[in-house]
Fold this sequence. Notes:
Chain A has 91 residues and is mainly alpha-helical. Helix content of chain A is 62%, strand content 7%. Chain B is built from no helices and 13 strands.
Amino acid sequence: MKTIDAIFKSIYKINQNAQVSMSGNDISAVDKIVWENGTAPISKQHILDLIPECLAEIEAEEQAKIDNKQSALNKLKALGLNDAEIKAIIG
Amino acid sequence: MKNLQDVFFLQTNGSGVLSFAGVSASAGQVIQVLSATDSTVRTTTSTSFVTGSNTLSVTITPSSASNKILILTHTTAYFNIDGGQSYYTIYRGSTNLGNGNSGMSVYEFNASPTRTSMAITYLDSPATTSATTYQVYFRSDYGGGIAYLNLFNIKASITVMEIKG
């Protein structure tokens, strides 16, 4: 899913109003893009050029979520909550 | 020993559909069954319903305009942004059998992501004896959100049954 997300993210960097459909869950999906609702096609190379940057952003976003969760857990423990109480709050 | 009128013959319509010659179905009985599958993940950011090139499509030719078509589908659904939804529906030709933009089923990402199996069942009355195509369509809630069909390449299917009216 990370690759697909990166392809979509790359497209949005070029055209933030783009509406597209794709098939498959790897980089070959870029060959099967359907440009929906009158969206002007973008060249395959233009999309591929931005993929590394988009993948790095996605990984940074995922790491930020993990870090934020751990930070929140640490703060709750510092307040005196035990693991069961924390689980009861955040599931 | 059977009388001649008690002997039934199996016949084909030339398209792989078998039936007993001289035997007419009674109301509620299944006359023919067709199905299709798709094992490729499909994604879209379209805010209007699209197929995303899925192969969950079946074309059936009802033998009578008074017969009904029972449609059974299952797939796996997902949407990638918290607070957003993806919508799913069935089209008969170019007609959305669901409720406008909401279709027939919804997946909602609410706080934590889950992936869900989704089934749609619908009894249609196409009122025609022409070839009629049923296909699964889906859409994103808003631009930028990615709607998924057949998440993780999990096999999905559509089955249509002609029911004697």
